[in-house]
Records
---
Amino acid sequence: MNKELRRVSIATLAMFLALFVSTSVIQVFQVDELRADARNVRTLYASYSAERGPILIDGNPIAESIEVDSVYSFLRTYPEPELYAAVTGYFTLNQGTTGIEGAFNDYLTGTANSQFLDQLGALVTGQSPRGAAVQLTLDPAVQAAAAAALGDRKGAVVAIEPATGRILALYSSPSFDPNRLSSHETSNVLQAYNELTSDPDEPLDNRAIAGDLYFPGSTFKIIVAAAAIDSGRYTPDDTFPNPPSLQLPLSSTVITNSGGSTCGGTDEVSIARALSLSCNIPFAQLGRELGEQTISDYAEAFGFGTAWEVPMTATPSTFPTGLDDAQLMLSSFGQYDVRATPLQMALVSAAIANGGNLMQPTLLDRIIAPDLSVVQQSEPVLAAQPISRTTAETLTRMLVDGVSTGVASNARIEGVEVAGKTGTAENGTGAPYTLWFTGFAPAVNPEVAVAVVIEDGGGLGQSGSGNQLAAPVAKQVMEAVLSR
Amino acid sequence: MSSTSTSTPAAGSPRAFTEAITIKLRTPAKLRNLELVLLVFAIGITGAAVALVQLGALGEIDTAFIGYGAGLGVIAMVMHTTLRIVAPDADPFILPIVTTLNGIGIAMIYRLDLADGVEGWASESVRQMTWTAIAMIVATVVLVVVRNHRALARYRYVAMFVGIVLLLLPMLPGIGVTINGARLWVAVGPFSFQPGEVAKIALAVFFAGYLVTARESLSIVGRTFLGLRLPRGKDLGPILIVWLAAMAVLVFQRDLGTSLLYFGLFLVMIYVATGRLSWVLLGLGLFVGGALIAAQSLSYVGWRVQGWLGAFDPTVYEAQGGSYQLVQGIFGLASGGLIGTGLGQGRPDLVPLAESDFIIASLGEELGLVGLFAILALYILFAARGFRIGFNGTDDFGRLLGVGLAFVLALQVFIVIGGVTRVIPLTGLTTPFLAAGGSSLVANWVIAALLLRLSDTIRHQPRLIIEEDA
């Protein structure tokens, strides 16, 4: 009987072993995953019962928790809701959480793993738990300039410090009021949420990083020019035929320059001049000679195909594959199926501005624990080196010419050398244009790189241009940085 | 009973002989003193837990409730004193373990009452304390009445009859009640009762009594088939009856857990009694076959399996009777993490049935993995004390009964906690001593009393040990 008893004892022990394992798996190994599950209302309640940390800019809150007399103890409020909605995102009881509120939820609620010791301390000392504060890189003056300059037109602005990747402004229009979504009345939240999602202008879309992607239009010529020069196959002075129109190979499509212009009126034009005047036909030919692979490689090196985490995830910009000659030529000036976010085009300018070094873009300055100790400090991170320093310098000269003597004239700032490129992207027959500007200033020791996109032709249908509408917005944003 | 019956060697014995032996007098008072210390400790843990709950959830100490708790402590002391008289050699660990588990359970149920804002007789904790008092008194009575456990063997067929009737009672129309899809309850007037809980004791007594007498014929006679020695047809009878009863529970009471519990108990006892692995394999095969057929043909069993394997699947999660409760319980455990939120600080009230079926998830949330490990360790210790009776017992009936009772409790813990943590499909059993529920408390305290009684017989003899020095 003892042999059997021993075996039964072992079997019983094995049953308990299974329970030790199963509880450990749930309570230790799967904790992060389970806490992140959208159906886990505990995470939500916990985030309300503890004082959620504020989101700060220069020490001033743009999102903070106010103590109220309700089951949730704290109400999330946004002092300047519309200005920062694209950055803060919203924090709701029943419709999820987005933006910085979502990306840094662990820290804001104080449940991040790095705050474990603080939690333990609070447990021992009996203090009520508090979340950490998240300080952002945004500059309030630049952000305000972006919002004011864009006005009520649909579009987005991104401004980046080229040397560090710190994002100085990130604005998407139309904006929304996150205070309506942070209410504790779930029916009000639901109503506001439904109104926002059914709004045809899609205010909840963050157009700067993750809205519908746009055709970059002529701003993409920067990448083609960079590929041509950096590969060593061309110099800025190499020329291409410059006819007013060109029928694409094996296609009935005829391409022209923007507005049907002659683009300087010469029979041949240099790459440098074609860039500053934004001639389509020379770039179509250049792109065809460079080939799909080369352009695609450079686009990727500049960040196309990368889901940037700022830390909200940006939609990757795309360059198409498997192109025939006609499609490749269209792609060379940012049409056909090339698509980009304003963030990505700002990064292209930032990389050139920073001598060919592309810095990882980020909104995070630092995370500060309730005891004011710094939990995490953001340091500049080199993301890629798409082009050499010499190529960057050459491109800078070309882009400065584009502003000073070319078609990007509205970005000129008195006494400052501005480098930039406009874009006027077509969206199909009869559809309003997408208007672009991307560039940086000053040309030497740049302080800011910027990208502006304006949808729906800025209200002018097919008669507006990037220079007319987007360049002045960029100018105001750059001025806000330079006048600090 | 006297502890001073030391016999000295007769005068005139050779000196050399008297120096070569040592006489040890085992003093049961030591055991009881150890029990007393542990019991004071157990009551202290319970009091501290209740105080923490009050500080965590109320922010102040409510002395009235602690007063009730102190009353229970007094009853535990009465039981301890009774043991000093009627079972002085009983195992000193069982009573403190059970008291601790019961106390932690009350603290958690009280905590959930505070979250739900119920007081007085509406609150589960007051009822649970009343039931605990009743259960302890019943256990004390069992200790006093059952002075010799061998007497129980005589009533084995009565036990069988009582056990099977209790098991099948909920199926009777009129008094059987279906709660949460499982028909495990009997209601007479305002009183509801889960007879299956008591049936496990009756059946353990029957199995032990029956197997002790029938083990010879069961283990020796039989034919060999494919390397397995199969029992004779007529010896198969009892197995088939128990299997049928288990299947009837599964089909008519819609409860896989209860059916697994009784069948598991039977298999383990028959294995320990006969040492025939072939019977266990045969029985397991029958059970798994039956369960598989049930999973295929009975929608509620199939649902349980789906809710287990695909718990996080949105369609299963949202379905009526789907995995919502299970997943919420797991979320609770996860939010507790390693060290827990602290008593009164979590949100265990978000899980349906947090005070009964899911009390382990509630405890895991507020006490953390550390707390759950401590609770599991208490159960292991309890089972080990029972198995010890099996190893060291003096008569086969007592040994079998001890193993059976200890195993059925361990298996129940496995079925419940395994269900909550997705080791096996979720079933509707209660966590012994912890979960809210009167019938379960009374039954498990009686098991504790029987184990105390059985352990007392082991140490009874020899009391005087004479050892020769090396």
---
Amino acid sequence: MKTVVIDPITRLEGHGKITLFLGDDGELRNAYFQIPELRGFEKFLEGRPVEEAPRIVPRICGVCPACHHMASGKAVDAVYGVEIPPTAKKLRELFFMGEFIHSHVAHFYALSAPDFVLGPGSDKAQRHILGIVDKVGLEIGGKVLTFRKHGHEIMKAVGGKCTHPVYNVPGGVSRPLSDEQRDAVEAMARECVELGRFSLQLFDDVVLKNKAYLDIITGPAYQLQVHDMGLVDDKNLVNFYDGKVRVTDVQGREIVKYSGLEYLQHVAEHVEEYSYLKYPYLKKFGWKGFVEGAESGVYRATPLSRLNAADGMATPLAQVEYRRMYDLLGKPCNLTLATHWARLIELLYSCERALELVTDPQITDRHVRNVPTGTPREGVGIVEAQRGTLTHHYVTDERGIIRKANLIVGTTNNNAPITMSIKKAAQHLVQKGKPVGEDVLNMIEMAFRAYDPCFSCATHSLPGHMPMRVTVVGADGDVVQVLERS
Amino acid sequence: MRIVVLGLGNPVLADDAVGLEVAERVEALLASGFAPAGVEIEVCRNESGGWDVLDYVEDADALVLVDASTDSTLAPGELRWYDPRALACFTSGRLRGVHNIDMFTAIDYARRMGTRVPAAIHVLGIGVEDVLTLTEECTPRVREAVEPAARRVLECLGRLAGGRGAADVPERG
């Protein structure tokens, strides 16, 4: 047995690794995506006042803090049984759109685009965002910088702080939006809509019009038939902040739609001893292992899953793009790399939705909080994080002290599908008897990168770098190949 | 001249918080009259690096970054100035996580886009013992390093200000 270990993930976002097990004949036997790092946030929350939770949980992650802030804020409202004012709900969603813009821009341009703009097998020394600028020019590079900044500036203008927000309070938000702030956000949102359209045009020009790339996207290495999950509104259209969780099967038929505490009836978590990260599955089918198909309990919760699980987008330009994608790829779409396309459609939706919200006449209303008066008890908050459905569940005593917390985060939903996608890519890409080259490693990583996974902890200690190291160990235990990514 | 002091860290992850604590102490010392003359100094704290650093460094002439260091050659609480060019060599130019690019690449990227970013970057690392336990407390040796680290930052600020009024900070207590 040979073992190939891919260890590409630094402590910046937690620590994980990919292990590929090869047989003596050189064929891939198995693949595992492992998270060896401690995750103890649920315990950390116990014994703390529940109103502190929305300020603590963003520390789980330095990349999607607002998602935890939102899910936690909603859970706290539910704990107190308080309905927030309509304007507070709109402001929370507006703030949230800022994070979607920032995160999706960063993922597409910095992490996904190098594989397509420069090519998956291109020189690794150039395969990064600076290499993209060299290829596409400074003007586009400047647009990316503006786009990213607008996402953060929208969050700051609305909520005062973006990385680890202190905006949600029980029953609403901490401050209303001034006329001046509204005008600034509106100007940025208008520009973002144009940048969102530009991003889809770029994807069209660079990826979809390139037959070789389209072949990779639609090829067998990156297909996975599992169920899909995503939050939808009352018309079954994609919504990131509110609605019901809809799960559809491999043929696109609705399996279930649930909200709040009902999640316990539909989702359970399987544990493997080699990873702290659990494997959620649909109770209806049960855990049947890492298997695809209609009878498997495995589901995905990604941008592509959200679009698969919905009947459309709630904003006009994004809806046009939604139809265009499914006209070409069919629905439901099980092509893992199409997640990048779906992410860009979501990006455009976020920009349009931000503009809708900030131009709503009610957005500057001063009534942004209903102070809770009920006895705290138990509550669930569900939102869509950029990388999957995010559920926070708190149980408190009558004083509001957290006695139990359960979090199902975006990447946790995708733990099993990521493992399966890596295995599938490796099975198609690792060739018997041939050394595993850097290009192959990158293409295996592409299966994993499409999920935009997140592994906890906003740690970023210096030097903050752990190079990707691949070690191939022969059946006799000797190292036969070492590859390092610097 | 505008100088940004940026402390990075996660406040609930043991020694990882030390960069934030040093920044807080630097801010207190500057407010107590130990600021070098002739320069504008802004002290910031943030919980993430990568792209987010750009939110702080635009239009600054110099950046002094303070962060916990997992450098295995450093003892807990030991201080080290890093050459940012050497740190940049550690990076892939692509990412140091799966979400984000590293802060040096982000700054380089912004510079190439014509954004005015610091020409001088000074990086102070503090050796750590534990950055995996969820707690709001640093370990004792790292906690003891907060004061000397803050003084090292003040010395650096004094040098950046051209030696104008790099105040001698009296020992505490």
